[in-house]
Amino acid sequence: MNFGKKLLGILRKIRLAVTDLLPIILVIAFFQIFVVKQSLPQVGDVIFGSIMVVLGLMLFIEGLEMGLFPIGDAMANSLARKGSAFWLFTFAFLLGFSTTIAEPALIAVAEKAANVARDSQLIVGDEQVFKNYALGLRISVALSVGFAVMLGVFRIIKGWPLFYFIVVGYSIIMLATLVAPKEIIGLAFDSGGVTTSTITVPLVTALGVGLANIIKGRNPLLDGFGLIALASLMPMIFVMIYGLFWF
Amino acid sequence: MIEGLIEYGLVLFKTILDVIPILVLVIFFQLVVLREPFPHLKTVIIGSIYVVLGLSLFLLGLEKALFPIGNIMATQLSNPEFLGITEANPGTWASYYWIYIFAALIGFSSAIAEPSLIAVAIKAGEVSGGTISSWGLRLTVALGVSMAMALGTFRIVTGGSLVYYVLGVYIVILILTFFAPRKIIPLAYDSGGVTTSTVTVPIVAAIGLGLATSVPGRNPAIDGFGLIALACAFPIISLLSFALFSEMKMKMSKYKNR
Predict the structure, then answer these.
(1) How large is the angle between the packed helices B134-158 and B200-214, nearest 10 degrees?
(2) Of A130, A167, A173, A231, most Cβ neighbours within 10 A?
(3) A189:B228 CB<8 A
(4) Which of left, alpha, beta for B181 (phi over 0: left; psi -120 to 50: alpha)?
(5) Rounded to 5 degrees, what angle do the CA atoms A125, A126, A132 make?
């Protein structure tokens, strides 16, 4: 009986993962059959790949609830109970900084941006200058994410509304957009989106909600969320400042 | 078969590299700062292994199956021959209608499949005690992404300045933020940052690049940017408007019942 129950549970999880991926498969199939009307290259690869995607998503969601959420939650709990603001802020900063500095998407974007800047003669000099530019970009984005998570944790402790941070942040971005060099703007806007990886998001979310749960008078919905919002807002500001500093 | 295993091994290795900073940080804090036993250690370790294995399977499957087709489709749909555009008959923005439809639909469906959005939606459902359904949240976000994609591809075709589009969108967001129910604001802004991740970014980038390459007079290096920025901003708009709308509906029905 126990085995049957387990099997049913697994089947249910597979069905859920299939539901998540069904829209994307339907859209591609529809366009392939009715609009583009060309035969699919390597049908075998596509079917095999789709099965991998479904199994992968199922495992990920299972692991989310067993591993990532509890880690974020437990860290929030023990750090709050320890009662040391210093270690809490250090943890928050390092969580943001360390997961961003090595992020492959960010490395790719930084290199691409350095190429654009060189082609449009924004940075002149030898290979070293060019490398420094890309590295500086990565460091400023990573610093901004670390700073954002730290600021977000501070906000949760204080219970200040996210609203103020958003209004101030977006106003700064809009003002900076008007004065920043044109070549850096597109990059700045996109850098906010690439910094939050699939493993960081559940951890950071669980950390915020866990803190809001354990600190008296905080509402998990109102105070617990918002860390990611700051982590995608802050890089835009930092990158534009970085652009102003270089050019 | 062996080739496939080697490929999987490579992706797995990359995912493990991604996890190492987090692992080092958590272990350091546990051993040096907190010095207390970790609750349910065994389950957490198994769960983390699931996450790493699952994410690498997911990424490899996407690379094998979905991204190649997405790329081919984006190029085919913006091919002048397919659009019926010649030098004598350059067509208008409306000639590209299949692109807008494709971009909107693929934006919607990749947002639904996005693992980080699933994570935030699960947490939001848990925390709100069921008043926010995780499916409702994901559908609203996906709707926002699809609008962003339609508008973003329209911008690439017509060649408008990204700065004006983004500034306009941010002003709308700020106005909505003033009126929307306070409880939804943090979640709405989180969802914006989360949407653009493993599934959405590569597909969106492929469409932007393919389109900017085939529309005459566009520079892929400049005009290809910006789709991601819009895809981040529009879920905020759709979630805030949805919350505002349902709050107004509730107030209306209360008023009627009095």
Answers:
(1) 20
(2) A231
(3) yes
(4) beta
(5) 90
Q: What is the interface pTM, i.e. ipTM, of the complex?
A: 0.87
Residue A146 belongs to some domain of the structure:
yes
Residues A195 and A96 in one domain: yes
Q: Which residue has the higher pLDDT, B158 or A209?
A: A209
Structure tokens at B240: 């805030």
Contact B131, A48 (CB under 8 A): no
Q: Are B212 and B103 in contact (CB under 8 A)?
A: no
Instruction: Please tell me if residue A132 touches chain B, with a CB cutoff of 8 Å.
Output: no
Looking at residue B38, what DSSP letter applies? P
The whole-angstrom distance between B130's CA and the closest CA on chain A is 12
* Partner-chain contact A66 B73, CB within 8 Å: no
Identify all chain A residues contacting B29, using CB atoms and an 8 Å cutoff.
75, 79, 87, 91
Q: Is residue A74 assigned to a domain?
A: no
Contacts of A24 in chain B (CB under 8 A): 66, 106, 109-110, 112-113, 199
Within-domain flag for A71: no
- Record: contact A66-B50, CB cut-off 8 A: yes
Q: Which domain holds residue A97?
A: 84-246
Same domain, A227 and A146: yes
CB spacing of A63 vs B62 below 8 angstroms? no
A240: pLDDT strictly greater than 90: no
Question: Which residues in chain A touch residue B183, judged by CB atoms under 8 angstroms apart?
Answer: 219, 221-222
Q: B-chain residues within 8 Å CB-CB of A113? A: none
Scanning A78-107 for CB atoms below 8 A from B yields: 78-79, 82, 87, 91, 94-95, 98-99, 101-105
For residue A157, being part of any structural domain is answered with yes
> What CA–CA distance (Å, rounded) separates B189 from B87?
44
Q: Is the dihedral of CA B93, B94, B98, B101 positive or negative?
A: positive
Q: A145 and A181 in one domain? A: yes
**Shortest CA gap A213–chain B (Å):** 9
- Are A60 and A107 in a shared domain? no
Residue B222 clears pLDDT 70, i.e. is over it: no
Task: Show the tokens assigned to B101.
Answer: 């439809």
User: Do A125 and A241 share a domain, yes or no?
Assistant: yes
Q: Could you tell me which of A93, A126, A125, A131 has the C-alpha nearest to residue A110?
A: A131
